[in-house]
Amino acid sequence: MADETDDKVDMAKGVMQAQVRMMDAVLKQNIEALEFLKTRFEKDRAMLGELATAKDAAAAGAVLTGFWQKLASDYMQEAGRLGSLMQATAQEIGEGATDEIRSAMGGKPGR
Q: Cα(93)–Cα(19) distance, rounded to whole angstroms?
């Protein structure tokens, strides 16, 4: 009877560990995206200040040109980072789901 209870506890722990691992991967991805947006919005706000203090149309044009160039570069770099992170997240979810199934069937998780 005690062995059966221990097995159920081990199965529940294994399932929970797999779910935690998967959720951790998803949250890391969300944190990265939110950090990027925070930084990007701060740059947007700074550009508005520079635009407001531009001495003439040529200076305002230079502010806007620089802003759009940096914006495009920032988004391309972030797309690369998120692409890599999404790949890692998908792998963690796949491995976590495998571990969850294994644990639910009474086996030991892979990690």
A: 9
Which among 20, 2, 19, 13 has a CA at the least distance from the CA of 106? 13
Length of the chain: 111
For 28-51, what is each residue's pLDDT tens digit? 889 999 999 999 999 999 999 999
Distance CA 66, CA 61 (A): 9
Q: What is the CA radius of gyration of the chain?
A: 24
Please classify residue 36 by burial: count the beta carbons closer than 10 Å to its beta carbon, then call 0-12 exposed, 13-18 middle and 19+ buried: middle
Reported as half-sphere exposure (CB side, CA atoms, 13 A), residue 42 has a value of 6
Calculate what percentage of the chain has a pLDDT beyond 70: 91
Does the pLDDT of residue 111 top 60, yes or no? no
